[in-house]
Each structure stands twice: as structure tokens, then as C-alpha cells.
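Thread: Modeling a multi-component assembly for a lab meeting

Hi all, long-time lurker, first post. My supervisor asked me to bring a structural picture of a complex we are working on to next week's group meeting, and I have zero experience with this. I have the sequence lines for every component (576 residues in total). Could someone generate the structure of the whole assembly? Inputs are pasted exactly as I received them:
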Amino acid sequence: MEDKTLRKEKNPLKNIIILVIVAFFASLTLWGNAYFINLLTLLFLYLSLAQMWNLLAGYSGLVSLGQQIFVGLGGYCLAIMTEKYHQGLALSLVVAVAVCVAFAFVISFPIFKMRGVYFTIGTWIVAEALMIFFANWSFANYNIGYNIRMGYTFSPNIIYLMAYIIGIGSVALVFFLLRTKTGLALMSMRDNESAAEVRGVKLYGTKLRIFLLTAGYTGLTGAVLYLNMVYLTPDSAFTINWTVSMVFMVIIGGMGTIEGGIIGAVVYVIIQQYLYNFPGISMIILGAAAIAIILFLPKGIMGTLHSRYGWELFSVRRGLQNKGASVTSLKDILMK
Amino acid sequence: MNEILKVENLSISFGSNHVLCGLNMELYENEVLGIIGPNGAGKTVLLNILSGILKPTAGKIWFMGEDITNRSIVERTRKGFGRTFQVPRSFENMTAYENSLVGAAFGGDCKEKDCLEISSDILDLIGLGRQKQDFARKLGLLDRKRLEIGIALASRPKLLLLDEVAGGLTESELTDVLEIVQNIKAAGISVIWIEHVLQTMVDGTDRVLLLAEGRDIIHGLPQEIMDSKEVEEIYLGTDE
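Re: Modeling a multi-component assembly
Sure thing. I ran the full set together rather than chain by chain. Output:
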């Protein structure tokens, strides 16, 4: 069977609601104030990070603690391309994505030999090694890092629109991916990996494709994050805090659901704003919140809503076809 | 009748525990072979080896004349192996229809339109026509077992491995399962059926093999095997 979109259920009302929300956020550049624009820029970029980690861990079972690799590489590609080679933004972003995908492909060989917790630790070690490498690499300006001056040339509204496209794009990407044959494989892997394999799902190939896809998109997000933040060093670019925030958002929202990443990103960005006042204990508060959610809502907010009430905004359910004549025997089916 | 599956000198050990010790067996086209034996006899291990989940320590497996001993799980599925599990392993957060679709789309080599039709038709045939849009986690035990068989059938297998599908079912539910197996046989699919419910072996198989201590103790017609001294000794023990 070709990897086309399999037949899905359609719900016009949900589509209208989604379009209204999307249009509302697009119009913010016309009337939103600076604080709000900045907040939503962060929200959309974090939304993208959450969607990618959810796709990786929630659907493919690849629980990586090393996604900061791609945030950092994306940021560094942008910095080096614009500061060292004086290239434009578009080419810099293309290079960021390409480098992240290429790096993910190279490390996939040793990393994919690891299973479970070893994979998790392995990805973290690669990120830590990269941090040390960049801090000692003259080409990347050692520990000094880069001041990305291109960031000053764009207005906050333009950067917001980039973040908006990346954030909405990440949701659309996951949504449409889940509606393909690969999506069917991912959902079966999410529910029971070993059973999926027995049914004919190629685990390695599917996981590799998702690893490369999420690496590229996380790299793109990282580049725009640093375009907004303007300054990067190895310590900030490759810090595990990036992945901690991704894990937090997905756990709070609900692993293995599209809406979970959205809810998680909103909650995280709001909490983060308040926690700026408590820098010493911010991580403790985030950790405590995550533990409380795991204990009382182990499926996260969206996962609980879905399992209790069947509620979902982005349905990837496959509807039944209108059938012609009914088949009378198994032999008829086998002959098809 | 042609052989569809041949197992030669199959052995597997876990440390010093020899679970299968040089097992030889064959299965013919359109045959339902029942395998019985006490707990720990190696029945499920045998199915795990046949479906590629476990690698044998020694021995060969031939499927339709091809040596598939070193073939992966996915390759075996795509060559025509279907299987069910003792504890149903359906995809809980997917509907019955989507579960069936996974079998058709990945196990069966079919076009998109055919996959969609097959997935739906299979559920009608195995008695899940009304539950197609229900999530797998909401189904009862019999329906989950039906769904397991449905997913396996959706991949249009040539050989179906059934692992204790009758376990935990009521008498009327057993009749339903027997009917499903008869339909599977009528469709030309060969079946290896592991079971503890011995009556289903008499009613639903062509031949029965008694497996104990990793060996083929005796095999033959179902009623003959059930009446044999070996079955009595293994299931009820000896006087000594």
C-alpha cells in the first residue's frame, strides 16, 4: 500500500473553530502589545519543541533527553552562517535544518543500538559532549559564543510571525503525519510496540524517519529561538533545560496526543512567566508540578479528558467507508 | 497434501533451562494442528520462535519450501505468518477498525482501497461488525480475542498461529471461537493452535501434537491423542 492519507472522519465545526483560532493569532501583529507578542513568540516556539518531543517519545517510544543537541545546533548554524559568513536568514535556516538532520543520521547508528533507558542516557551524553566540544572549538568561538546581530534587524512582529508559522506548522505536521500510513504505524507503536512489529510495522525504519524529522524541525525551532534571544553560548545552547521543558510540557498536556503539546506549552509558558520572580526555586516548582500530574493525572490533562470523555480537537480517527455489497466469506477477502 | 511448514531439530535454551529439545514437526496446507501440553512445555516459546520473536539455539524452520530461520518478525509476517497472543495485544487507543487496518496495511500486501475494505469486512466476518468504531480498550474478553484474530486475518496470512484463544471463555463463547476457526480453515489458511481447553482440540483440529519437556511426545488424530496413555499421564499423573 502506498503511503497516502488513509480515509479519515471529517468534522466541519471543528475545522471552523481551528481556523478561527489560527486567524486570531495571525491577526495579533495588527493589534497585540509588545509584551503579548513576545509571550506568544515564546509560546509558539515552545509549542513546536513540545510537538516534536511528543512525536519522538509519545508516538515512537524514543524517549530522548538529548533534544537540546538540535536546539543548540540550530542556534549555532544561524549564528555561524550570519555572523561568520554573512549569509541571509533563509539560507541560514536551511543550513540549520540540514546540519541537524545530517547529525541525527550520523548519531542514529550508535544511538539506535541502545534500548530504553540506555537510549535516553545515550542521547543526553551526546548533548553534553557537544557542549564541551563547542566550548573548545575555535571555529565556534569557544565559550564566548555569538551575539546574533541579525536578531536586531527584525521587528518583534516579524519574529512572532516566524514563531507562529513554526508553531502552527508543527501541529499541522504532526496532525497530517498521523493521518498517513506512517501515522497508523506510529499510533500502533505508541500503544504496543512489540505487537506492532508482529503485525508487520518496521520499527527501525519508522523510528529513524521520525528521529530525523524531529531533529530537523527542532533545529529550525532552535534557530528562530536564538534569532529571538540574540545571544548564545555552548552552555545555554546545549543545556538539558531545553529537553526538561519539552518533557514537562508533554507530561502536563498528555503524551501521545496532539492537544497535549498545546496545553502543555500554554501551561509551561504561563508558569515560566511567574517563576521569573523565583529563580532559585523555579525548577523545584516545575518538578513538583510534574510529579503531581504524574501521580493524579498520569495520562496528562488531555489524555485524561480523552479517556474519560472521548474529547479531542484534532481527530486522527479513521472513518469507515461506504460499502457496496457485503462479503460473505473469508475466502472472498483473501482473494482480493 | 503439501507441507506448508517444517520444523527440524528445533531447540532453545535459556541458560541451563532447555525449553525445546530437538523438536521436529510439520504442518500441511489447510490443516489445523493443535498443540497441547502442560504449563512450561514450551508451547508459547514455540510460537514465539515460529513468529520470529525468539531465535532458536539450533534447528531450522522451513515455510513454503524456504528456510526462514533467520528471517525477521516483519519479514515472516509479510510472507504470510499471522498470530494471536495469549493475552490480547490489541492497540488499546485505536478503534477496532483501525486495529484491523494495521494488520491489513502492514502485514498484507494490498492497495489502499483494498486495505480499507478488507479491514472492515474482516470485522464483519468475525462478529465485530457493530463494534468497528469502538476503542479496543472498551471491548470485552471475547471481543478482544476476536479482534486479535481479526488483526491477524487482515494481513491475509497463509499460516495462523493461535495462542490459547479459548482460555477464559464461556461454553457458548467457545462455540463462537470454534466456528471462527472452522471458517479460517475453510478459507484455506493453515493453523497451529495452542490450547489448554482440550475439548476445543477434539472439535476444532485435524491433528494434535502433545508437547512435553520440549519434545513431541505423541501426535495423531485428536480423539486418539486425547484417549492416549501419554495424555493421561501428563495431565493426571501416574499411580506411582
